[in-house]
Amino acid sequence: MVTFVENHDSQPLRSLESVVEPWFKPLAYALILLRREGYPCVFQPDYDGAEYEDYGHDGSRYRIVMPSHRFLIDKFLHARKHYAWGPQVDYLDHWNRVGWVRLGDESHPKAMAVLMSDGQEGSKWMEVGRANARFADLTGHVAQPVVTNDAGWGEFRCGGGSVSVWVQD
Predict the structure, then answer these.
(1) What are the C-alpha distances in Å from 39 to residues 20, 45, 85, 155?
(2) Which residue of 41, 58, 121, 167 is most buried, as measured by CB atoms within 10 A?
(3) Residue 9 carries which DSSP code?
(4) Is 0.85 surpassed by the pTM of this model?
(5) Can you tell me the distance from the alpha carbon of 4 to that of 46, in angstroms, rounded to the nearest whole number?
């Protein structure tokens, strides 16, 4: 199954228009690029940005500006290549904060934790299976590192309306 955030048919003023708000696109790309399920497809205008004019369904002409999300998509692609391996454990116990961990495999032994919020900033305790391990937010959204406890659990944070991708140092 191909997973996508937006494509040429669903972008603004196209036949299957289903606009994803720019603030939410990083969260959506983290979902399709860092989870086990799906075959992700990155839409070039989301990566490079785009500006165009076209006619709407009402016959009026509109100017569309789609901002680039290259900085974060590049971070997610790096995390996908190096950390998004092995078993996935979901933490879906809050209505505004969603998290999951990837535990790595024999060829990719480091773990990753992802936390996102479509509401306020917050945190979630997640088990990464690495005792006393240090994790850094690859996105740079949260500066303070996380160090897991003796049982391999850590309190991972993210900002409001944001996503943080925590990778093992």
Answers:
(1) 19, 19, 14, 30
(2) 167
(3) T
(4) yes
(5) 11
